[in-house]
Amino acid sequence: MSTPQTTRRPGELVFTILLLAASTFMLWQAYAISGFESLSSAGAFPMAMTAIMVGSIAYVLAKLFRRAAPAHLVLRLKTEIMPRTVVVFSVIIVAYSLVLETLGFVIASFVFLLVSIWFLEGGRFKRALLFSVVSIVCVYIVFRLIFQVVLPEGLIPEREIIAAIQDLLAGRH
User: For the segment 27-42, what is each residue's pLDDT rounded down to a tens digit?
Assistant: First the structure.
């Protein structure tokens, strides 16, 4: 049988507060769907689920406030919560999200995958390049060509290229 934990883990309190804030926001959004019109309204199920989330997280938060803060917080935050890999990869994700619209899906996703795989694989550039090319080609074929999902175009004029290919295949010049 395990003994109950008497101290909080590093970042646990902040993370739980953020979860409570996000869950409360989702509850508000669920309420905005249809309010309390009836139990069978469109927002009833989302409101019930998010209310359960808010209640559960509030309960966990109340228990966390009773525990002592962790010892050696800065050292433990660096090793347990924010190791170098997490920080670098977070920066890569933020950079990707910032350039996606400007560069477009194909270029931004290719560079994101290339840098991510290269970083996580420990500097194997050729392998990262191969995986990135294969992944982007597969994702592009499945989502853009088969399912016809509109992806951010950016620098590559995809619509014009696809239209030209379709015209060429149809025998139109």
Answer: 999 888 877 777 777 8
Where are the domains positioned within the chain?
Answer: 10-81, 83-170
Q: What is the rounded distance in angstroms from the CA atom of residue 110 to the CA atom of residue 131? A: 10
Long-range contacts of 82-89 (CB under 8 A, 24+ apart): 85/120, 88/119, 89/116, 89/119, 89/120
Contact 20, 58 (CB under 8 A): yes
The structure's pTM equals 0.61
Render pLDDT for 49-108 as a digit per residue (tens, 0 to 9): 999 999 999 999 999 999 888 776 666 667 777 788 988 999 999 999 999 999 999 999
Query: Which H or E run contains 21?
Result: helix 12-34
DSSP string, 62-113: HHHHTSBPPSSHHHHIIIIIS-HHHHHHHHHHHHHHHHHHHH-HHHHHHHHH
